[in-house]
């Protein structure tokens, strides 16, 4: 019989890439969607998988919806990707961020414990939990957490709850501590997509400025399509554990800007970029760089897409979107 997987956050960036991977492996995929006045399936359509998913209703802030869902579907695997995932918004919406990202995970784990204790669980943890910790110039599974935003703090709670359900109830629960990963379907608020979309607008004469915040922040940027393979591999490993996933290379926001303008064939990026205080954060995470050797050794996972190829892929996709319009 086909394995079953429930993906929360199915309409976001990672959900569609993971759904595609699992469908290719023969899974039946359930995708959790919350109530929307005007839902958009654009990201799933982009990967051509919308019609192959069975959509189920629920909300991470509504415990009873998650209890019913797990009781009804009893999936082999749950990938919890749902989140208020934009760090910048988490200062203004700290309570909502906590309810979705922290309490929502507790509700889901409880539902698994009560109704489907053999279900394997993946939690979308994040390098934002490390915040300003980088005692060795990189972060790995032994680096202490020092989150810098309500988002990072909510994810630390979810991380420890995931570990605690493993230790207390012997559930198969894993944390993937993923560093930034991007793609042509990355949300438009995140800096990479904001840059590639802005570059495509400038190239097509639809904008003449790109407003950005801190250009010095450094991130370890990989491709989402590579990273969902690590999520899958964690749940296939013989024992549940927590893994850092990243490329081991980092670049500044300015490096990304330079590469993106160059990929679009626009000289003199400085002519277009405006530093705008509105996009600076009350507390910044200045420098993230993964050491993913545990995932590489134990899971056989490896990043495949270079920084240059990632930027090119995103710029080309945005140029194509504006040309099509
Ligand atoms: P994303 O594009 O923002 O997608 C998040 C999804 O969560 C959206 O589809 C959203 O649904 C859904 N969601 C939000 N609140 C919900 C609620 N109350 N109930 C049900 N669903 C809800 O995020 P992503 O980039 O794919 O990331 C996936 C996960 O990995 C997130 O948990 C994120 O925090 C984590 N993460 C991401 C990165 C990265 O670089 N991308 C790195 C580390 C960890 P709507 O479409 O209805 O808004
Ligand atoms: O693209 P960002 O908004 O991503 P951030 O904050 O690193 O968070 C992303 O990655 C995390 C993993 O580390 C995920 F957990 C999280 O869910 C999300 O996917 O910002 C990246 C950097 C920041 O330092 C920010 O200050 O870019 C800087 N930046 C500079 N100008 C900007 C801008 N960020 C945004 N969003 N918009 C700007 O105009």
Automatic annotation (TrEMBL):
Cofactor entry: NADP(+)
Stored SUPFAM superfamilies: NAD(P)-binding Rossmann-fold domains
Reaction catalysis annotation: GDP-alpha-D-mannose = GDP-4-dehydro-alpha-D-rhamnose + H2O
E.C. no: 4.2.1.47
GO molecular function: GDP-mannose 4,6-dehydratase activity; NADP+ binding
Gene3D superfamilies xrefs: NAD(P)-binding Rossmann-like Domain, UDP-galactose 4-epimerase, domain 1
InterPro entries: GDP_Man_deHydtase, NAD(P)-bd_dom, NAD(P)-bd_dom_sf
Pfam families attached to this UniProt entry: GDP_Man_Dehyd
Domain called NAD(P)-binding: residue spans: 6-314
Any GO BP annotation: 'de novo' GDP-L-fucose biosynthetic process
Origin superkingdom: Bacteria
Keywords noted in UniProt: Lyase, NADP
Function: Catalyzes the conversion of GDP-D-mannose to GDP-4-dehydro-6-deoxy-D-mannose.
Similarity comment: family membership: Belongs to the NAD(P)-dependent epimerase/dehydratase family. GDP-mannose 4,6-dehydratase subfamily.
Record-given protein name: GDP-mannose 4,6-dehydratase
Protein's organism: Candidatus Roizmanbacteria bacterium GW2011_GWC2_35_12
């Amino acid at each position: 019989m086909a394995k079953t997987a429930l993906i929360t956050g199915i309409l976001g960036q990672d959900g569609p890439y993971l759904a595609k991977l699992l469908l290719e492996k023969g899974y039946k995929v359930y995708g959790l969607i919350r109530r929307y006045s005007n839902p958009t399936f654009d990201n799933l359509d982009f990967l051509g998988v919308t019609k192959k998913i069975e959509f189920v209703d629920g909300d991470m802030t509504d415990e009873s919806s998650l209890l019913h869902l797990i009781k009804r579907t009893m999936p082999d695997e749950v990938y919890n990707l749902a989140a208020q995932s934009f760090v910048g918004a988490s200062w203004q919406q700290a309570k909502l961020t906590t309810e979705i990202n922290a309490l929502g995970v507790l509700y889901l784990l409880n539902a698994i414990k009560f109704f489907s204790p053999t279900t394997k669980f993946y939690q979308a943890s994040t390098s934002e939990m490390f915040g300003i910790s980088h005692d060795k110039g990189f972060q790995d599974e032994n680096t202490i957490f020092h989150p810098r935003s309500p988002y990072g703090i909510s994810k630390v709670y979810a991380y420890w709850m995931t570990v605690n359900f493993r230790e207390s109830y012997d559930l198969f629960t894993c944390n993937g501590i993923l560093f930034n990963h991007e793609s042509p379907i990355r949300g438009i608020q995140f800096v990479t997509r904001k840059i590639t979309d802005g570059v495509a607008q400038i190239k097509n004469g639809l904008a003449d400025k790109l407003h950005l915040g801190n250009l010095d922040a450094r991130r370890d940027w990989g491709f989402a399509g590579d990273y969902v393979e690590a999520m899958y591999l964690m749940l296939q490993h013989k024992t549940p554990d927590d893994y850092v996933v990243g490329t081991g290379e980092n670049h500044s926001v300015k490096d990304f800007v330079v590469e993106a303008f160059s990929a679009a064939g626009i000289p003199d990026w400085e002519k277009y970029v405006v530093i705008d205080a509105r996009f600076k954060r009350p507390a910044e995470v200045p420098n993230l760089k993964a050491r993913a050797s545990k995932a590489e050794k134990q899971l056989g996972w490896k990043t495949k897409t270079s920084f240059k190829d990632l930027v090119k892929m995103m710029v080309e996709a945005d140029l194509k979107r504006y040309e099509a319009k």
